[in-house]
Design goal:
Elements lengths: L10 E4 L11 E10 L3 E10 L4 E7 L1 H26 L1
Antiparallel strand pairs: 1-2, 2-3, 3-4
Length: 87
């Protein structure tokens, strides 16, 4: 597991539709131990805009599952909208 400020073992993806001023954003996720008494935390790391953005959001496992569910729902809506456009 990575340490509190280490993101080497994280998985990253480019956020290519972020807009002209933020086209170099990347979004990563990983696991860290921020508090040994409460166990691991899942984090989302957003970085880019020539160093102007470098933020972490730390979540419990349940919060991370809620985020995954929200992303899956959003992807489903986006696919449906794309299918309508293609028709």
């Amino acid at each position: 597991m990575a340490g509190h400020d280490e993101h080497e073992s994280s998985i990253y993806s480019t956020a290519s539709l972020s807009g002209r001023s933020r086209r170099d954003l990347t979004v990563g996720a990983g696991v860290v131990i921020t508090d040994p008494t409460s166990g691991p935390s899942v984090f989302v790391h957003i970085t880019g805009a020539e160093g102007a953005i470098d933020e972490d959001a730390y979540m419990s496992i349940d919060e991370a599952i809620d985020l995954v569910d929200a992303l899956v729902a959003a992807i489903g809506h986006a696919r449906s909208a794309l299918a309508e456009v293609i028709r």
